[in-house]
Amino acid sequence: METKVYSTNGEEVRTILLNDEVFNREVSDGCIYYVVNNELANRRVGTACTKTRGEVNYSNARPYKQKGTGNARAGDKKSPIWVGGGTIFGPKPRDYSYSIPKKVKRLAMKSLLSLSVKEDRMVVVEDFTVESGKTKDLAAIIKNFMKDEKRTVLILKDDDVLMRRAARNIPYLRVLSYNRLSAKELLYGRKVLVLEQAASNLNEFYGDK
Question: What superfamily would CATH give domain 2-28+101-206?
């Protein structure tokens, strides 16, 4: 399939050929669902921790004597039924991350790229960089394609340090490398800007494998 290539001013300059296997394939909703959930789970820190009755630093004494009160017997003040006592079945530190098949990840990324094309959210932009590394220079370019400050994804051809530095202070912009995409960002991005060389790299990286 062919798509237009735009300059940094938002003007059409030429066309580029995109791989149908990557940018024009049937969308797999199931793979997208599993990969997004996997990314969110892998980001969880898992440091939540509560104390059981054996870990609470509290008195070992009974709250009242065992006989003669008419109440049920009570062991000690660390019991979960008392204020200040332990927690029953509370969270403990754990690892939430898990792995999924590489083929599922690849299919999800190709489905998300195809979905962005079908929903007219993807724009191929001629290669550029921000020599100054300043946020205002990059923001001026982004505004030519996204009038409102809505979530935008910029896919680079390599790890451009100056571009990433310029993007750090733009809260609605996410910068990704073509070989390290994020399913979550591609799914929720309102606009996906792909550098021309990055689009060519995606043709090869996800095509025919």
Answer: Ribosomal protein L4/L1 (3.40.1370.10)
